[in-house]
Design brief:
InterPro entries: ATPase_NBD, Gcp-like_dom, T6A_TsaB. Helices cover 31% and strands 25% of the residues. By secondary structure, the protein is α/β, with parallel strands linked by helices. It folds into 2 domains: 103 residues, Nucleotidyltransferase, domain 5 (2-Layer Sandwich); 81 residues, Nucleotidyltransferase, domain 5, CATH 3.30.420. The strands form 2 sheets. A 5-stranded mixed beta sheet has the order 3-2-1-4-5, sandwiched between helices. Strands 8-7-6-9-10 form a 5-stranded mixed beta sheet. The radius of gyration is 19 Å and the shape is globular.
């Protein structure tokens, strides 16, 4: 089984190839913006490094968010396009699930709270139990709601974990900070999932930038 994993939902533009459970190529670059220009080149480079033909890929795993709205769209669209061209399944994995997965590896048997900055004083959040089963769907809350609803025995994980820990007065030993999950985690998590059609972005809230619907430029008088 060969799996291609794609992550463009964070500051990173990253791809990985996993063959029979082992990562055989991984490319990750922290770029902030410009994922569309980088992604296809990274996929080609990863295939070259692993000496794997693109046509040999059995499935595609993609980070469906939450995260950068533009980044999520780029990753999901690329995964869908490759799945269609290769006639292979594409599997969506959330960034919160990947964060929980990595934190669980360091803190087994712990309640994990995965946290990502959603902007405008909002936080993407999902809780996982000691067996990494989700305790609730992924949600978006303001910082005060997150702090008020914390389990004082839980591990705070993800790129927004330190901020929430500071607001809540949580000790350092209960934090698992990471800028973004490892792209390999999406490949690994996809193995236990089946494709239910094309992966769909997990946005949780509306984008900040919206098209103008009530503004028009007045015509210039002759």
């Amino acid at each position: 089984m060969i799996t291609l994993a794609i992550d463009t939902a964070s500051l990173n533009c990253a791809v990985a190839l996993m063959k029979d459970g082992s990562i055989v190529a991984r490319i990750s670059e922290k770029i902030g913006k410009g994922h569309a220009e980088k992604l296809i080149g990274q996929i080609i480079e990863a295939c070259s490094l692993a000496k794997i033909e693109l046509s040999s890929i059995d499935r595609i795993a993609v980070n469906v968010g939450p995260g950068s709205f533009t980044g999520v769209r780029i990753g999901v669209a690329t995964a869908r396009g490759l799945a269609l061209a290769l006639e292979k399944p594409a599997i969506g994995v959330s960034s919160l699930e990947a964060i929980g997965f990595e934190a669980h590896g360091h803190f087994p048997k712990s309640h994990i709270i995965a946290l990502i900055d959603a902007g405008r004083d909002m936080v993407y959040r999902q809780d996982f139990d000691e067996n990494l089963q989700p305790l609730s769907p992924a949600i978006v809350q303001n910082c005060e709601e997150v702090v008020a609803g914390l389990d004082n025995k839980a591990i705070l994980a993800g790129p927004f974990s330190k901020t929430i820990a500071h607001l809540a007065g949580v000790k350092e030993s209960s934090i698992y900070f990471l800028d973004a999950p490892d792209v390999a985690s999406f490949a690994k998590l996809s193995q236990n999932k089946s494709s239910d059609g094309s992966p769909k972005p997990l946005y949780l809230r509306e984008a900040d930038a919206k098209p103008q619907t009530s503004f028009s430029v007045p015509r210039k008088k002759e």
